[in-house]
Amino acid sequence: MTHQVRAVVARGKGAPVSLETIIVPDPGPGEALVKIEACGVCHTDLHYREGGINDDFPFLLGHEAAGVVESVGEGVTDVTPGDFVILNWRAVCGQCRACQRGRPQYCFNTHNAKQKMTLLDGTELSPALGIGAFAEKTLVAAGQCTKVDRAASAAAAGLLGCGVMAGIGAAINTGNVGRGDTVAVIGCGGVGNAAIAGARLAGAAKIIAVDIDERKLETAKKIGATHTVNSKHGDPVEAVRELTGGFGADVVIEAVGRPETYKQAFYARDLAGTVVLVGVPTPEMKLELPLLDVFGRGGALKSSWYGDCLPSRDFPMLIDLYLQGRLDLDAFVTETIALEDVEKAFERMHGGDVLRSVVVF
Ligand code: APR
Ligand code: ZN
Ligand code: ZN
């Protein structure tokens, strides 16, 4: 059997996305068909549309999603129909060196659903990040589904599938922020603000938000920043030092992805402090640093890939904290929109006043 559902498709480079009817097959072995309840709009969707990722058009966009498992294929035991799940980019293998060394975040053999979703004329779709959830139903590998408490709002839960998890994880998993730490976060978009939420959750005593946009700093305060620094006017490294008794922060999280902010992050940390790089640079970017500074300051420079998260460990835990009122995931849902409004949400994305627009089905 197949399913015909409405979906948002990017048919060609730079062209506005279109609302299409697509064909979704029943799940094969190891696969799950998920009825999507909500899916956030992410910069990465826009990158796919602009051809910045690859040229495998048409793309079925959407990847920050939560929904209910409708049916599962042969051999699937971890999820069952009716489960409320958050989707993640890839299922890990459990067998490769990375998996066996306890670093499944870096699994070499991740997989997605093998069967293809198609347009009505049979053209195969490339699901963004192996998900494709701007669709009423999507097909994924069962290992991409993590069951969480049904009481959570789907719009908030889905955000853990990407940027919000990346930020929270940068603080709690990669940065190991602890009780009483001072933390600086450079760049307060969706990812940086999530890092602020993570630092707060971990018990940081001081959380310094740095951005060039005053509106982002206002949001950061609501999410948990104790101090804000507008780096449009002056050196944020000096400002962070001043706010930390002249030392620098225990943990600095970079959530922009540019050489100048990488450098600021490097110098804003205390001796033996940790720098967490979660902002993704482009291939041509370079950073030059005096080696004596690298050597002499000690501590750690770490990059954070998807918040070093383990979906099976982190999604249910964060949803429980959300339901207990200890993690305000709703604060990241700036607006809920209809499926046909994804293109408009792309336009609003760079306006500076949106953390996340979320499609609710
Ligand atoms: N200094 C400080 N903040 C800056 C600077 C700068 N020089 N340049 C930009 N910013 C701020 C922006 O004002 C914005 O608030 O960085 C923030 C970036 O936020 P978004 O564009 O919303 O991006 P986001 O989704 O948070 O992702 C940030 O993390 O995962 C990566 O690929 C992602 O590299 C990107 C980064
Ligand atoms: Zn994303
Ligand atoms: Zn593996």
TrEMBL record:
One MF term in the entry's GO annotations: mycothiol-dependent formaldehyde dehydrogenase activity
EC number(s) from the headed UniProt entry: 1.1.1.306
InterPro entries, per database record: ADH-like_C, ADH-like_N, ADH_Zn_CS, ER, GroES-like_sf, MycoS_dep_FDH, NAD(P)-bd_dom_sf
Record-annotated Enoyl reductase (ER) domain positions: 14-359
Cofactor entry: Zn(2+)
UniProtKB keywords: Metal-binding, NAD, Oxidoreductase, Zinc
The protein, known as: S-(Hydroxymethyl)mycothiol dehydrogenase
UniProt organism field: Streptomyces lutosisoli
